[in-house]
């Protein structure tokens, strides 16, 4: 599968490297400075590439959308049309200083991203555990990564990529249920294994 990562910071690099190891082709891009990726991608081998954000959509079967939250509109504009493609929203609504959350009123980060990609198949994922938690889980005991979205086939695709990265996908339902697992939801930053996750989700739903 061809995977394009928009905003290849810590999240994009961690998962992208794992997917390259599993045989996927991965294009890394960076909204602010593509040059910072060159040395990292050069170590990953022939299935890893550096692209400008503008070239990611044409390359990709799946787009991992992972810019800082304050840059989502800029990154989406650079990315351009993604009609019919799977777009994985990894964002959480942190402020630029990373000291707190942006006030979104009654909206959620996933809803804001979905508004930017109305013709895409948006799936929320790779957002509920930190890079450190995910990296540790890839080496030791896998933890749950939550999925939310309105298209079941798109969610199946993302679930497969999560499993390929050595983690456990868990589908909470349609995109509106991302409110449970993105910041500041009750499932955010908590680690769950397969045996405990169903009860935790039921409690979060109230």
Automatic annotation (TrEMBL):
A Pfam family (short name) is: F420_oxidored
EC class, as a word, reads oxidoreductase
- List the signal peptide residues: none
Q: Which domain of life is it from?
A: Bacteria
Q: Which InterPro entries match?
A: NAD(P)-bd_dom_sf, P5C_Rdtase_cat_N, STEAP_metalloreductase
Its Enzyme Commission number(s) read 1.5.1.40
Query: What keywords is this UniProt entry annotated with?
Result: Oxidoreductase
Q: Which GO terms describe its molecular function?
A: 8-hydroxy-5-deazaflavin:NADPH oxidoreductase activity
Output the Gene3D superfamilies linked to this UniProt entry: NAD(P)-binding Rossmann-like Domain
Transmembrane segment boundaries: none
- The residue ranges of the Pyrroline-5-carboxylate reductase catalytic N-terminal domain are 2-93
PANTHER family listed in its UniProt record: DUDULIN-RELATED (PTHR14239), REDUCTASE (PTHR14239:SF10)
Q: What is this protein called?
A: Dinucleotide-binding enzyme
Name the species this protein comes from: Conyzicola nivalis
